[in-house]
Amino acid sequence: MSTLALPAPSRWPKLTPILLAGAVLVALLIMLAMPLVAILGQAVRDPATGALSWQAIEQTLASPGLLEQLQRSLAVALTTCVLVVPLAYAYASALTRSCMPGKSLFRALALIPLLAPSLLPGIALVYLFGNQGMLKGLFPDGIYGFWGIVLGEAFYTFPHALMILLTALAVADGRLYEAAHALGANGLRRFLTVTLPGARFGLISATMVVFTLVITDFGVPKVIGGQYSVLALEAYKQVIGQQNFPRGAVIGLLLLIPALISFAVDHLAQRRQQALLTARAQPLQVRAQPVRDGLALLFCTVVAGSLLLLLGTAVAAALIKLWPYNLSLTLDHFDFSNVDGGGTEAFGNSLRMAGWTALLGTVLVFIGAWLTEKVDGARRLQRPLHLLAMLPMAVPGLVLGLGYVLFFNQPGNPLHGLYGTMAILVLCSVAHFYTTAHLTAVTALRQLDREFEAVAASLKVPYWQTAWRVTLPVCLPAMLEVARYFFVATMTTVSAVIFIYSPETTLASVAVLNMDDAGDTAAAAAMATLIVASSALACGLFAILQTILLRRTQRWRARSE
Description:
single chain, 561 residues, mainly alpha, MetI-like fold, 22 helices
C-alpha cells in the first residue's frame, strides 16, 4: 500500500525577513554607498583613457587658490562654532535650569530657522546691512565677506546645536548639586565641577554638528560671501559653472574629510559617555531665583529677537514694494511669472518631493529598523544595515548630490533612467536625512520589551501581525515625527539637490538661489517666505494628525480610573 507523503513545510515564511532586510540593504547601497564610490572613481580616473590616475587630485591640490579656500572654510567654521555653541548652551540652560516664564514659546522661536532654507539668512543680512540696508552703518566695510557668512551660518546652525544641548541638559542628578551645595561650593564652582562635566559630550556633539554644517554649506556664502570664496562654494562653481567633474569630485572628497573627522570625534565621545542618571538618582529641582530668572529671560529675548529679526526682514522684503525707498506693502513679488527660477511650478515640485520623501523615507526607515530590532530572522544583517544607516551623518549633502550625478548619469547604469526625474530627488533626500530618522525609529523600537515578540511567537501569531497590531501603533508618535522631519528637511534643502534637478523638476529652494543670482532678490525672499510658511503649515498639520491618530491608537497610555 502506498502512503501519501506530507508536503514539506515551506521555507518562505522564514526567508521573508532575510529577503526584506536584504532589499533594504540593497536600497541603501544604491542610495548611499554607490554614489560615494562614484566620487572616488571620478577623482582617481583619467577622463581620457579611463585608467587609474592621480592627475586630477595632484592638479587640484596644486592649484594656487585651494589652500586659501580651505583656510577660509576652516576660519568660518571655527568662528561660527565659537559664536553659536556658547549661545546655544546659555539658551538651553535658560530653558532647562531656570524658572523663567514662556519657556515653550522661546523654545519654539529658537527652532524657527529649521523651517527656512540656508539662503534666507543671507538674503536677510543683505537687506539689513548691505549697500542699501537700513543698518549698513553697523558694518562700515560692508557685510559681504567673512562676517556676513559667519552671521548667516550662526542663524542656520543655532537650532541644531540647541536641540543637542537641550537633550544634554534635560537630565541631571539632583544629589550632585545638593552635595556641592553642602560642601560650600558657590555657583561658579558648581558649574565647573558638576554642570559642565555632565554636559561635555553634548557640547562636543553640538560643536561637531555646527562645524560640519558650516564647512559643507554653500548657500550662505553664495548669497553674502562676496569675494570671500570657501571650499563648498568652489565645488559648486566647478560642477555647475565649469562642468569640471574631476576637480569637483576631488573637492568633494576634501569636504568629506572634515565631516568624517567630526563624526569620528563625536562617535568616540559618545562611546566614553556614561549614564548621567542611575536607579538612585533624584531629579534636579530648579528653584526660583528672581535675578537669575530675569537675566535668563532677558538673554532668551535678545537671542530669539535676533532670530526673528532676520526672519522678519526676509518676510518684509517679500512684502515691501522697493526696499528701502518705497516701503508700501505689495504682493507683486509673489508673482513669479516675470522672473527666472521656476516660480510656482518649482514650489509645487518641492511640495511633491517633500511629500513623497516623507512617505517613502518613513516606510523604509521603519521597515529597516523593525527588521533588525524585532525580527530574529533578519538580525544577521543588523550590523551592515546600521553602518549604512549611520553613513549619511558623515556625508555632506553637497558631496552626496555630486555622487548622484556621477553614479546615476552613467549611460551603462541600469538606473540611468532615473536621472533628471522626481524619483532621483526623492531618493537623494531620503538618503541625505536617513540617519536622524533611523536613530529615532531605533530608539522608539528599543523601548518595547522583546517579550511582545516572544509571546506572539508562542501563540503562533505571525511576526507581521504583531508589527501591525502592536509595534506600529506603539511607535506611531515616533513615526509621525520621522515623517514631519523628512518633509520639512526636504522642503528647505539646497545642497543635496543642487546638482541633480532638471528644468522640469526645479525646486523652490533652488529657485531662491537662481532668483538671487539673477538679481531678483525680492522674489527670492518671497519664495523663501513661501518655504517657511509651507513648512510651518506642515508642522501644524502633522500636529493635528498626530493628535487625532494618537487618540485612537494610544488610549492604553492613559491611566485607568
